[in-house]
Amino acid sequence: MLDIGGLHKRFGSRTALEDVTFAVRPGEVFGFVGSNGAGKTTTMRIVLGVLSADGGEVRWQGTAIDAEARRRIGYMPEERGLYPKMKVGEQLAYLARLHGMPAADATAAVRRWTERLGVAERVNDEVQKLSLGNQQRVQLCAALVHDPEILVLDEPFSGLDPTAVEVMSAVLRDKADEGVPVVFSSHQLDLVERLCDRVGIIAAGRMVAVGTVSELRSGGVERIDVVGPPPDWARDLAGVRIVAQEGARTRLELDGATDQDVLKAALAAGPVHEFAPYRPPLTELYRDVVSGGVP
Amino acid sequence: MNGGLSAGQAVGLVAKREFSTQVRSKSFAIGIVISLVIFGIYALIFQFIGDETSSDSLGVTPAAQPVVPALQQAAAASGRTLTITDVSASEGAAQVQAGDLDALLDRGAGWTLTGQDAVGSELQTLLSTVVRQSTLDQALQAAGQNPATVAASGTVTVTTLEPEDPERGQRLALAIVTSVLLFMSLIGYGSAVAQGVVEEKSSRVVELLLSTIKPIHLLAGKVLGLGAVGLLQLLILGAIGVVVGSVTGLLSAPSAAAGALVAAVIWYLLGFFLYASVYAAAGSMVSRQEELQSLVAPIMFPLLLPFIFAVSVLPGDPRNTLGTVLSFVPFFSPTLMPARQALGVAPWWQVLIAIVLTLATIVAVVAVAARIYRNSVLRTGARVSWAEALRG
User: Fold this and answer.
1) Any bridge partners for residue A242, and if so which?
2) Are residues A274 and A241 part of one domain?
């Protein structure tokens, strides 16, 4: 398990991280979301040891993470970077070796990952000759080529075309299924919701929510969508609040009443075609959480 | 499946990449060719200037004929080429005017030497001496003395306390070539280190590298790798120089050349580690190649100053006191001391002291440079301030 415990970081007078704590379990894809400047990149850099924390610590399998353990992390920095004039294959082999892989294994790993990510025919080209999308694929190869035990990816999906997004998603899922904890940051919340087992939301350097998407939902008030009864049927209903009314659809927030009370009232008012609890998407949960609403 | 990575392995991997990337690059081969061309042009110019100043064409009128044998003898003795043409006074004047003759020697009431707008000082001296001598000889004969006896009793015999160095000319050339080679290698590969550091910063690859190896290992690997490339280039140029020199007969003292090459290698290594650390620290403080120039320009001065001194003052005055003193100053030693060694005026204990001083300076400079590098290499955007770069 990758434990991030009570990280603090200040840059001059600005507090970048304040008591950032979460854990990523083996086999789990963890989505790390938050607005720009919230502290995602700073947290990841501290995990990789590229930046040092002012307080708190990162633990891997119960012990404080050291250089040797960090070498087994696959990392994709927010600022993409490869040697522009170095050939793709040589560069990946070099990076694999810098992570402690023997030469022969490195060569095999380069072949395996460039094939998997669809850049195998470009291994003898300089990186700068590749399109941005392909450079991005090579960058992911760089994070995976040394067969990491942990994956930490900063915005891995930004700048990818839909096909590449699919490939990348599948790769992350596969790595998680191998038992690797995978943590990545993204602004594409629908993608995070679809791909991640758990989500952590950071705002202004503090973790404001951590959990599965349904756990995040369960903290909120219960809402019900009803389709069918004529408009205004619920206006005088006790123990509910109307959140939205759109055509035949009414969204209610329960405030004392139970879902059965609402169903009875709805059936009394007219035919009911749909009756379902409303599951707010991550986008909505995120907005509520970040804007200071209680999760 | 991944084994550990020792500090040595990390540095080795980085150094190997730097070495193979640089040696395979076009700039490596081009650098060697350009160096050879520069040396070739330099040698040709040297030869040309030597030829031009040591040969004269002189017109001699019938009245001046009697001194011709003495003139030819004196010219041969001083190693000058003197072409003598018999002309009439008017023809001679016309040819001097046209530039076909350097000067015209005539004898009327007295001796006259006519040039177009000036007469070369060496030709003047030669003619004055010969004419004065022949006049004196005639006077002596008229007085019943034997000029040869008089001359013998008035000859100064030159001796030196230490045996004269038959390889002095060679040593001069070697000293200049050594200085030029070292100057070019230190500037060239020092700035290659700075550029390499900036390349990793500007391409952002440095964050990926530093997520697996320590900054000091990345720095050490880069300096060692590029230093090895510079050494290889130095050895290639040195070998070409020795071979070409021996084959053409220009180099008649291979032992002096080998000694100079060994000294050059030692001082290259010392100078490179000293300057490369400074260059690397400078490179880490900026984010783009364009910003680098203003920061590395001052590093040129401690290289340029002793270099100019070595090629301009030392050849004429090898035991120059200022040169001797400066050759002990750490940042100046790498270009000055080898020049003094090539000239044969640096005793071994002086060389040893300079080496020890330089090594001590390297230790201090590397410590500061490594700190600056560690503090600056991950910072992008504006130039890193000195306060931030040097902190803790």
Assistant:
1) A252
2) yes
**For residue A47, what is the DSSP state?**
H
- Co-location of A152 and A272 in the same domain: no
Of B203, B206, B208, the CB nearest to A142: B208
Q: What is the pLDDT of residues A168-204, one digit of tens each?
A: 899 999 999 999 999 999 988 889 999 999 999 999 8
The crossing angle, in degrees rounded to 10, of helices B26-54 and B215-248 is 40
CATH number, domain with residue A241? 3.30.70
| Minimal-distance CA residue of chain A relative to B17 | A94
Same domain flag for A212 and A222: no
Last residue of a domain, one of A216, A251, A274: A216
Instruction: Parse chain B into domains and list their residue ranges.
Output: 7-47+167-390, 55-152
Q: Is B16 helix (H, G, I), strand (E, B) or coil?
A: helix
**Torsion-angle region of B344 (φ positive above 0: left; ψ -120 to 50: alpha; else: beta):** left
CA distance B21 to chain A (A): 8
pLDDT digits (tens, 9 = 90+) for B6-65: 889 999 999 999 999 999 988 889 988 988 888 788 777 766 766 666 678 888 888 888
Distance CA A83, CA A106 (A): 18
Residue A20 lies in a domain: yes
Identify the CA nearest to A222 among candidates A262, A189, A186. Answer: A262
For position A144, which CATH number holds? 3.40.50.300
Number of domains in chain A: 2
Residues of A with CB under 8 A from a CB of B: 45, 48-51, 67-68, 70-73, 75, 77, 79-86, 94-95, 97-102, 105, 142, 146-147
- Judged against a pLDDT cut of 50, whether residue A293 lies above it is answered with no
Q: Are residues A124 and A253 in the same domain?
A: no
> Among B16, B208, B374, which would you mutate to test the A interface (most chain A Cβ atoms within 10 Å of its Cβ)?
B208
CATH superfamily placement of domain B55-152: Periplasmic binding protein-like II (3.40.190.10)
Is the domain of A12 the same as that of A155? yes
Which residue is closest to B12 within chain A, CA to CA? A98
What range does the domain containing A283 cover?
Answer: 218-290
Q: Any idea what the Cα angle at residue A84 is, between residues A78 and A87, rounded to 5°?
A: 115
CA distances from B10 to A94, A130, A147, B121, B179 (A): 11, 28, 18, 65, 34
Q: How far apart are CA A180 and CA A24, in angstroms?
A: 9
Q: Clarify whether residues A78 and A197 are in a common domain.
A: yes
Q: How far is the C-alpha of B351 from the C-alpha of A247, rounded, in Å?
A: 95
ipTM above 0.85, yes or no: no
